[in-house]
Design a protein that fits this description.
6 helices; elongated; five-stranded antiparallel beta sheet
């Protein structure tokens, strides 16, 4: 491969690393054309960008991208596909679901929510990760719950007092 071609591929990977906040390094080699096409279609439907990469070129892109990715360098062996996504747990769920019927893809490593996950045993943890939006929704829900209780207590208390005063007025 010519140096210009390598430079172009590194720049494309850098663009993808900048566009997407999460990425998964997977082993996707050995899939036949039909299964590979089906996996790519699933990725497209779930807004995941899947790219087959040469390990040395992806390593160069990671080295040039801001941040330290040293923990993932050990995963760059064999046939590598990188899945880029803006939602942290979508690729993990896709890998888990697709690998039920096929033995691949398997997880090598991931960079999700500013943390590193190395090894196939991390797939369950990655499936259960909540996105920042989901966490914000949970926090807002927790904050609203006590407020709703106070408001409902005040509203029900007002009708109880009104009913009590009306009963006392009728007795006199």
């Amino acid at each position: 491969m010519r140096k210009e071609d390598k430079s172009t591929l590194v720049n494309e990977l850098l663009t993808s690393l900048s566009e997407y906040s999460h990425f998964y390094v997977t082993e996707a080699g050995g899939l036949n054309a039909e299964k590979s096409s089906k996996l790519r279609r699933e990725c497209y439907n779930k807004e995941v960008k899947m790219v087959m990469v040469k390990n040395t070129i992806f390593k160069k892109a990671l080295e040039q991208h801001e941040g330290e990715y040293d923990e993932l360098y050990t995963t760059l062996t064999g046939t590598t596909a990188v899945m880029f996504s803006n939602v942290g747990n979508v690729p993990a769920k896709l890998i888990k679901e697709f690998s039920k019927a096929n033995e691949k893809p398997t997880l090598k490593g991931a960079y999700v929510e500013e943390s590193f996950y190395v090894g196939a045993d991390q797939l369950e943890a990655l499936c259960s990760i909540k996105s920042k939006d989901e966490l914000l929704g949970d926090v807002i829900g927790l904050l609203q719950s006590p407020m709703k209780n106070v408001v409902s207590a005040l509203q029900s208390g007002g009708s109880t007092i009104h009913g009590l005063l009306q009963t006392l007025a009728e007795k006199e």
